[in-house]
Amino acid sequence: MSKIKALMTAGGAALRSACSPFGPINLLVPRSGFTVHRGLCYGSDPRNKLDIYVPAGIKGPVPVLLFFYGGGWQGGNRGDYFAFGQAFASAGMVVAVADYRLYPQVKYPGFVEDAAGALAFLRAHAAQYGGDPERIFVSGHSAGAYNAVMLASEPQFIEATGGSLGWIRGVIGLSGPYDFLPMSDPVYVDMFHGTNNLQSMPLNHVEGPRPPMLLASGASDTTVDQGNTDRMAARLQSFGSEVKVIKYATGHIGIILSLVPGFRKLTSLRQDMIDFIRSH
């Protein structure tokens, strides 16, 4: 059985289409209680932009949550994730939702380099928005979870911006593909430079202690195999890193949908993320 069905068979379209479920649902999301600063540039490319959600009336520096969406590294738009920003700005956090360059404009590691650029921007500017630059948490769903976890697994990406792994207080990966070799889908073979490029997998970059991680997935996920989360957690634990694994009774899209007002009874994910952030 393939480790990630979407990359091993013609079902590759499943991961490519596993992007935002929010869309029209965003129209139902409350607009009050926070301000959105849109289109802030963290790099020179047109896709190097992010939106920052700032809670109203915050006092003192608060935790910062940086989010990368999924879409198979081939699609997505930060504006589709208004509901994500609201979910955590309403909990008193500064939230950043970032775009990043996509295939075929870039191949691995271009999207991870952009993730590092977004992190560096927040490190430098979070305080302007009431955020604590010492408490930046990096999160993502699906391909975005890969970006977040790779950023925390391989120090060189942050070091290239002048930083260190210490810039990341914690990581929250949602339904992420962290160890899905070998691959046969031609698109992903090209994107990741071969069928079995070990250096393209986050798991293979864990060679010592890494920031605390919460790795969550849906027990009925048919897009990204559960083994990705299990193997990543085991690798982290083998080096003494703190990692918590949670599996919810939902699927690949249901897990991210459960952050939207009106759907939060699907899982306890929002509260679990809030608890993880507040405890670190």
Can you characterise this structure?
- The protein is of the alpha/beta class.
- Helix content is 29%, strand content 20%.
- It contains 10 helices and 8 strands.
- An 8-stranded mixed β-sheet has the order 1-2-4-3-5-6-7-8, sandwiched between helices.
- The protein is globular, with a radius of gyration of 17 Å.
- The relative contact order is 0.16.
- The N terminus is likely disordered.
Helix content: 25-40%
Distance between the termini: 37 Å
Strand proportion? 15-25%
In N-to-C order, the SSE pattern is HHEEEHEHEHHEHEHEHH
Q: What is the topology, as strand order, of the major beta sheet? A: 1-2-4-3-5-6-7-8
Count the DSSP helices: 10
Report the count of strand segments.
8
Average per-residue pLDDT, rounded, comes to: 93
Low-confidence stretches: 1-14
Which properties best describe this structure?
alpha/beta, 10 helices, 8 strands, 20% strand, globular, disordered N terminus
Question: How would the blueprint of this fold be written?
Answer:
Layout: H1 5-8, H2 12-16, E1 34-41, E2 49-55, E3 62-68, H3 82-89, E4 94-98, H4 110-125, E5 131-141, H5 143-153, H6 156-159, E6 170-174, H7 186-191, E7 213-218, H8 227-238, E8 243-248, H9 252-257, H10 269-278
Parallel strand pairs: 3-4, 3-5, 5-6, 6-7, 7-8
Antiparallel strand pairs: 1-2, 2-4
